[in-house]
Design a protein that fits this description.
With about 190 residues, the chain is α/β, with parallel strands linked by helices. It has a single domain (about 1-190), classed as Rossmann fold. Helices cover about 40% and strands about 25% of the residues. The chain is built from seven helices and seven strands; from the N terminus they run βαβαβααβαβαββα. It has helices at about 15-20, 40-50, 60, 65-70, 90-95, 120-125, 160-190, and strands at about 1-10, 30-35, 55, 75-80, 100-105, 130-140, 150-155. It has a seven-stranded mixed β-sheet with strand order 3-2-1-4-5-6-7, covered by helices on one side. The longest helix is centred in the C-terminal third of the chain and has 27 residues, at about 160-190. The chain is globular, with a radius of gyration of 16 Å. Bound molecules: 5-O-phosphono-beta-D-ribofuranosylamine (GRF). 5-O-phosphono-beta-D-ribofuranosylamine binds near residues 8, 10, 15, 81 and 104. The site of 5-O-phosphono-beta-D-ribofuranosylamine (GRF) has 13 residues, from α1 and β5.
């Protein structure tokens, strides 16, 4: 059984869909939800769905504690879903091509430090882009710079508010993230 850990800092709608997608899966399971924000909505979702959660802070992420926990739990794949901290180089090295992220824009544009949540959609609208979308990519030690695994696009309509664009992007995320993780799991026989 491939053991997936999801790391999230926020509401956790993607985390929920990943848990649900793999709940009855023959080869993979979300066995842990890691979170760096005690009040994050993702913790309630993990609780409701019966998945153990692991709360940690920035110090523990950087000092090797989180890495030891993930290795100790025999995690095969780390999936970031709205996780806002930079993954330290040691953790990237401990999970080579085994950490992936989803970004709510078409990287390499509109990525990097500080480009998360509504900031991304505001920048896309301000730049008068005609389309936006999602990018799923391997994680390296820089924000949003790893090799791309998947992109999907959606239109940006004139007069779009950041909220309207965010809703269109979230729909893409929910439709595609579980599928891309599934393909990765099957293709790599992780
Ligand atoms: C998503 O927009 C994702 O692209 C970004 O953070 C958000 C997470 O949303 N990385 P949720 O917490 O899964 O609802």
């Amino acid at each position: 059984m491939i053991r997936i850990a999801v790391l999230a800092s926020g509401s956790g709608s993607n985390t929920q869909r990943l848990i649900e997608h793999f709940a009855q899966h023959a080869q993979a399971r979300v066995v842990l939800v890691g979170c760096d924000q005690p009040q994050a909505g993702v913790l309630q979702r993990a609780w409701d769905l019966g998945v153990p959660s692991y709360l940690f802070n920035g110090v523990q992420l950087r000092d090797g504690t989180v890495q030891r926990e993930l290795l100790g739990q025999r995690i095969d794949l780390v999936v970031l879903a709205g996780f806002l901290r930079l993954i330290p180089a040691d953790l990237v090295k401990a999970f080579p091509q085994r950490i992936i992220n989803i970004h709510p824009a078409l990287l390499p544009k509109f990525g990097g430090k500080g480009m998360f949540g509504s900031h991304v959609h505001e920048a896309v609208i301000a730049a008068k882009e005609k389309e936006s979308g999602i990018t799923i990519h391997y994680v390296n030690e820089h924000y949003d710079e790893g090799e791309h695994l998947f992109q999907a696009t959606c239109p940006v309509h004139a007069g779009d508010t950041p909220e309207a664009l965010a809703a269109r992007i979230h729909a893409l995320e929910h439709a595609h993230y579980p599928q891309v993780v599934e393909q990765l799991v099957l293709a790599n026989g992780l």
